[in-house]
Amino acid sequence: MKKSEKSESLARRDFLKGVGVAGAAGVATVALSGKQAKAALPEDRKTSGYRETEHVMKYYELSRF
């Protein structure tokens, strides 16, 4: 193993260690903040979704579904 390859692999290891430590610190910060996450409000489902409108019924008639 050449010296440049060895230092490159050490740099990768240091990077991965840093990412792991940063991730753990982020989780610990959120867990220890003491604030609870607010639940998302349910969306109003009456305005979206499938509806059998006049043009949909016409399509069904023409396609013989």
Keywords:
about 60 residues, 2 helices, mainly alpha
* Count of DSSP-assigned helices: 2
Mean pLDDT: 80
- Overall geometry: elongated
For the biggest sheet, the summary is: none
How much helicity do the residues have?
55-70%
Rg: 28 Å
Low confidence ranges: none
Q: How many β-strands, per DSSP?
A: 0
Proportion of beta-strand residues: under 5%
How is this structure best described in words?
- It is a single chain.
- This protein has 65 residues and is mainly α.
- 62% of the residues lie in helices and 0% in strands.
- The longest helix has 30 residues, at 3-32.
- The radius of gyration is 28 Å and the shape is elongated.
- 0% of the residues are buried.
In short:
This protein has helices spanning 3-32, 54-63. With 65 residues, the chain is mainly α.
Topology overview:
Elements: H1 3-32, H2 54-63
